[in-house]
Amino acid sequence: MRELAIDTSLGRIAGLHAGTPGAPRVLALHGWLDNAASFLPLAPFLDGIELVAIDMPGHGRSAHLPAGADYSFAGALANLLDVADALGWDRFGLLGHSMGGAIASLLAAACPERVTRLLAIEAIGTLAEPPEQTVPRLREALAAQRALRDKRLRVFPDVDSAVRARQFASRVPGSGLGEAEVRLLVARGLRAVDGGYTWSSDPRLTLPTLVRMTEAQVEALVAGIACPVRAIFADPAQPYLPDGLRRSRTRLLPAGEIVVMPGGHHLHMQQPAEVAAAIGDFLRGG
What is the pLDDT of residues 181-213, one digit of tens each? Predict the structure, then answer.
């Protein structure tokens, strides 16, 4: 994949580009605290498309949002359209993993005139909360914002130390991240500083979300996605999106289908051939 950079109103967006111009266009959106390298293992198996995988704002090699800005899912939509406009893409497909799949769900619902199809991996819709969590979440998020001002970035003496730290952070049930996959993400997610390396991602990305949708809002969002959707999920399911919930959401899609296969949360990195087989010709429009 070739490097690319796009200047937007919110700053420079970095990414990786593969495929032949003129083929069906697909914009790939990675998961939380990952980056465009998340799609490196899968890209060689995706024939017949033009693929652009971006580092979302604040991730990888893309610019951080200005001071005072908020990394909300809804706030990402205009920036994604700016990226598509800069690429000259009037209509395009979306490939999203986890957070990227949630943001892609919003964009597909909001812009049916531009999004041709959605391939979502380990996500459909966004995380939801009951209404009674609204005030506690606001209070927690604002307190965390103020506490972050005094936090200092960790400096790693070498890349291997950063790899070990990311591996440790990924030791959660169903993460599915091995050392090879971690090294891909870390290589794109570090910046050199005096004394070693720090994460290039914006520390504000670790803050709690200020507001979440209710499940009823998410259901309305999913039901409003008019384009064809294929949702690929790992078995076992993640605790925040149990199997019953992800299946009930998929049934709300006007033109949706679900594929469940054994694997971890990053199954598109760890078993790319199997995931590509599940994708088939979907992204090419077949």
Answer: 999 999 999 999 999 999 999 999 999 999 999
| 143 C-beta neighbours (distance < 10 Å), count | 12
Residue 279: give the domain boundaries.
Answer: 2-130+214-284
H helical segments located in 88-208: 99-110, 134-148, 159-169, 179-188
The answer, yes or no, to whether residue 20 has pLDDT greater than 90, is no
Catalytic positions, written as ranges: 98
CATH number, position 49: 3.40.50.1820
The rounded distance, in Å, linking the Cα atoms of 76 and 29 is: 11
The C-alpha atoms of residue 152 and residue 179 are separated, in whole angstroms, by 26
The residue type at 31: G
Instruction: With respect to residue 37, please indicate whether it lies within any of the assigned structural domains.
Output: yes
Give CA separation, 220 vs 100, 209, 215, 272, 273, in Å: 19, 20, 9, 32, 33
Report which secondary-structure segment, H or E, holds 231.
strand 229-235
Say how far apart CA 17 and CA 51 lie, in whole Å.
Answer: 6
* Percent of the chain topping pLDDT 70: 97
Instruction: Return the bridge partners of 213, or none.
Output: 128
